[in-house]
Structure formats: structure tokens, C-alpha cells
């Protein structure tokens, strides 16, 4: 009889791996540099247009879908600006990975159609105001996304707090 541990089956090994929540968001600005943010009634802070990645779609497809679902705007997500990682917390029992995509610049008078029962409000916020309204996790993503837009280099950031 061997003293070495028994090998796990593939199913046991897969079950032992850390699960990760995946989400994608949209960085959209107007010609004055203001950021489009939205407010859900069930969250303390404002957020980017975006949401969790559905089965069968990739993060870029998620951002494109969420843009349409949350605003009525039909536009394909552009370049990846930032990837944000958050460790498990009291809010989330698994790590989260959030992808922030560039959705470019839209006129501030672009019609926005919010989904009833999901989002309560939207606004074009100056960057300093958006940083405050988004809260610590999302403001880190905004700073990283704006820096990536400026120099063309995708950022990877780790947030000390969740904010999926």
C-alpha cells in the first residue's frame, strides 16, 4: 500500500477550484468628457452600464448586450480598457473579475431608455463627481479606464472592496 494521496477525479478537482463572478461594463463619455453612469435602486453607489456575463457569451458581448438592455443604445463594445479583480468579501463569497470596455463618445442628448424595475436614473457626471458617486471599487475602474484610453495600455487593477 502506498503512502501517496489518492488522485482526485477530474470532477473532484474541478469542484475544488475557485469560482469567479464575471461582469462587464461600459465606459461612455460625452464630448465634454463627462461619464455616463446609472443608478439602481437596490445599490448604494452609482455604476457603469453593464452587468454579469451570461452563459455562452464573452465579456465584450456582455458589454454590448448590457448597453442595449440598460440604455436602448445599439453599439458594439470597443477596446478592453481595464480588468479589475476583487477578492471574496462579506458582499461576495467568490472573487469577481470585471472587464471595462470603451464604448466611445456619445452626444449628451442621446436618448437613454432605462429598463423599468432595474435602473432608476442615469446622468452624465464630471469625472470628479463620477469618482465619488461610483464608490471605491468602481472609481478605481474609472481611473484605470480613463488612463488606458489616454495611452492605449490596458490596466489590471485589484480592488480592496467588491463592487460587481
TrEMBL record:
The cofactor required is: Mg(2+)
Recorded GO MF terms: hydrolase activity
PH domain: from which residue to which, for each copy? Answer: 1-22
Q: What are the protein's UniProt keywords?
A: Hydrolase, Magnesium
Q: Where is the Nudix hydrolase domain?
A: 19-148
Q: Which CDD domains match?
A: NUDIX_Hydrolase (cd18876)
Indicate the family of this protein: Belongs to the Nudix hydrolase family.
The protein's name = NUDIX hydrolase
Organism per entry: Kitasatospora arboriphila
Amino acid at each position: 500500500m502506498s503512502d501517496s494521496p489518492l488522485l482526485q477525479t477530474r470532477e473532484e478537482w474541478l469542484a475544488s477550484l475557485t469560482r469567479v463572478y464575471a461582469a462587464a461594463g461600459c465606459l461612455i463619455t460625452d464630448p465634454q468628457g463627462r461619464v455616463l453612469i446609472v443608478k439602481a435602486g437596490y445599490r448604494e453607489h452609482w455604476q457603469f452600464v453593464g452587468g454579469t456575463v451570461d452563459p455562452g457569451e464573452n465579456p465584450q458581448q456582455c458589454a454590448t448586450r448590457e448597453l442595449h438592455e440598460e440604455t436602448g443604445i445599439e453599439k458594439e463594445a470597443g477596446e478592453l480598457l481595464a480588468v479589475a479583480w476583487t477578492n471574496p468579501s462579506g458582499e461576495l463569497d467568490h472573487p469577481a473579475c470585471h472587464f471595462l470596455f470603451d464604448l466611445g463618445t456619445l452626444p449628451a442628448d442621446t436618448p437613454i431608455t432605462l429598463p423599468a424595475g432595474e435602473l432608476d436614473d442615469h446622468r452624465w457626471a464630471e469625472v470628479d463627481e463620477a469618482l465619488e458617486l461610483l464608490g471605491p471599487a468602481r472609481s478605481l475602474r474609472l481611473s484605470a479606464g480613463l488612463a488606458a484610453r489616454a495611452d492605449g495600455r490596458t490596466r489590471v487593477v485589484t480592488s480592496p472592496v467588491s463592487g460587481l
